Amino acid sequence: MKMENTQTDVAPVEAGLIIPAGMDTAAPAGPWRAWRRTDTVWMLSLYGTAVGAGVLFLPINAGAGGLIPLIIMAILAFPMTFFSHRGLTRFVLSGKNPGEDITEVVEEHFGSGIGKIITAFYFFAIYPLLLIYGVAITNTVESFIVNQLHMSAPPRFVLSFVLVAGMIAVVSFNQQVIVKTMSVLVFPFIASLMVVALYLVPQWNSAALETLSFTNSTATGHGLLATLWLAMPVMVFSFNHSPIISSFAVAKREEYGENAEEKCSTILSYAHIMMTVTVMFFVFSCVLSLTPADMAEAKAQNITILSYLANHFHAPFIDWLAPIIAIVAITKSFFGHYLGAREGCNGIVFKFLPGTRNIKLPLLNRLTALFILLTTWIVATLNPSILGLIEMLGGPVIAVLLFLMPMWAIAKVPAMRKYKGHTSNAFVVVIGLVAISAIFYSLFN
């Protein structure tokens, strides 16, 4: 089958790649299975969306449990990431009309009532991440001021307000400039992570080898299964790139038509191999250069792994580079998720409060910004456990949308039933349920 040259107006900005509208990014006409430049762009975009601030907390939760849970998580990383995101991609592609995004496909398959519920879930899958990033940026900057600049940090309620208000003001004032600026920082950020991982290699020690136990994790006090259970929401959070999946599926359906599903699966597989190898190398390098007790201390301090490494080794190179990487990563992630949270919040207002449809969008955006500012500032000032927030809010809600909803659609939606009966479906459901159930373990313990 031949494909004509096409032009695309789709710019995968969520991941940090900007393609000017009207730029011809398609390869010359040829078999649809041939790899195109647009395929490379989307592969890197998927990678860039997943590899962000969440990765900076994964080593802490994964490493505190010892080496055995970490090895098991490394084995699970690719299948749980690939099968879940492939399922969500297939769900978006199952809509009758090309160009339908995920919210439209949900309404088509499940009706307007479920559509409202999914819109609410979409908001609550993203909004808690802003709270997490508000706490993280405050703690990272506070640690940088105290440990690297050797100055006294300002009162926490002042510092958190300045940082959160500053980020919201910047992203609200000139959205396109910020998105383009942050997009330029994505790949240097990834390269910096790899540089840090390689820099830590001479610091590797045998402390992690002493935790080779299938019964108990020395630093956490939990058994192996409980350690894996509590780490699952953080894994889901760290490898999540569901916000870009809808745009990805729509763009590839426009480009490849009926062959989009197979092509999307190929692109996803390459992207997930890249992110699994690089992220897990970074995680292993961090874990092998510290001890489980160090990881537990980093969790207690409520800071990213990069901030802890800077304070722990006091080497000039990592002392300054690590906190700067962390600040860039958190800021980049906040900007990207703020836009999604604002969209979700506006959608809730319009769908659940019909009388508000006359409100002008600029005014609604300002009201949403005020709500996010006040709530994020309060949470950042209170300084709850970041990993606790991920375990209780971020990971479980993401798991509902990413793991369970597409599998439910396979069972209920005629257009999805061709994917029924695959072992991978059961695997995705189990991982999703484990991630969701971790919230109950956290609440009762």
Automatic annotation (TrEMBL):
Subcellular location: Cell inner membrane
Enzymatic reactions: L-serine(in) + H(+)(in) = L-serine(out) + H(+)(out)
An example Gene Ontology CC term for this record: plasma membrane
Transmembrane stretches, start-end: 41-60, 66-83, 117-137, 157-173, 185-204, 224-246, 267-290, 320-340, 361-380, 386-411, 423-444
Keyword terms: Amino-acid transport, Cell inner membrane, Cell membrane, Membrane, Symport, Transmembrane, Transmembrane helix, Transport
PANTHER family named among the record's database cross-references: SERINE TRANSPORTER, SERINE TRANSPORTER SDAC
Protein name: Serine transporter
Gene name, Swiss-Prot/TrEMBL: sdaC
